[in-house]
Description:
Layout: H1 3-14, E1 19-21, E2 30-31, E3 35-37, H2 44-48, E4 52-60, E5 62-64, E6 73-76, H3 84-93, E7 96-100, E8 109-110, E9 113-114, H4 115-120, E10 130-143, E11 146-153, H5 159-169, E12 174-184, E13 187-188, H6 195-200, H7 205-210, E14 222-225, H8 231-235, E15 240-241, E16 250-255, E17 258-265, E18 270-276
Parallel strand pairs: 2-12, 14-16
Antiparallel strand pairs: 1-3, 4-11, 4-12, 5-6, 7-10, 8-9, 10-11, 12-13, 15-18, 16-17, 17-18
Amino acid sequence: MTSFQVVAHLRRLLGVRKIGHGGTLDPHASGLLPILVGEGTKLTQFLTEQDKEYEVTLLFGVKTDTLDVTGRVLEERPVPDLTEEAIQGLLERSLGEIAQVPPMFSALHHQGRRLYELARSGVTVERPPRTVRIDTIELLKLALPRLSLRIACGKGTYIRSLCADLGEAMDCGATVETLIRTRVGRFALAEAVPWRELAELLDPTPLWDRLLPPEGALAHLAAVVLSEGTVAPFCHGQAVPSEGVRSDQLYRVMGHGIFLGVGAGTEKSTLRPIRLFHASADKSRLHPGERA
Length: 292
């Protein structure tokens, strides 16, 4: 099941045109997939930029072209008698900002084509390393040749590349066996609707009841409440005065008791609109079919 297939199924089930997700999952991966409906699709960039958490099991001694077990085996090596202490030391050196080369089997673009399209046709291109952030790595279980980890990281991190690098550091190679995304920002897997329920659902009403207000995805942003006279200009795309805002910091903007959108502070103590939401207080929570 791919992220696109989940969205396509929900588009039919909910009967909506505007629907998307908050960050693609690898085809081999499972776990949390935030779904954005209607005007919620305007939040895509804000969800994909949030921190994420994964649980991964990697298999030492094997290297594949996709960096997971679905790929073609390139090399097999004996696995040394690794100890938890040795692995823990390596994990600690992987924390913070690190340079990471994106895998060929990824959705990044190169001269107008996806990298995975090139990889499937046997083409390999140079990928410049990118700086990513690893916040925590917790060792869950060591049962050689397998190692299970919980990883919290910043945007743009490829867990497959991280595991491959760990395998190289251990001089035996490694590939991802299972990968589960357990958190995106404030949203946790335990709160999600299981796929098995979605696949069997015929009446979408329970899903509409689970739909969260758009501002819920922006809880990590400080809130600004606009004064009466600045709501209309802000909603028409104008920067408005707002005391205390910091330059280039994003804010969750409220006015008339409802969520208006996302704004960015400027050096002139004004707030300029980044994304606007056109919702009214009496209709912002209704299902699409119930709106006038």
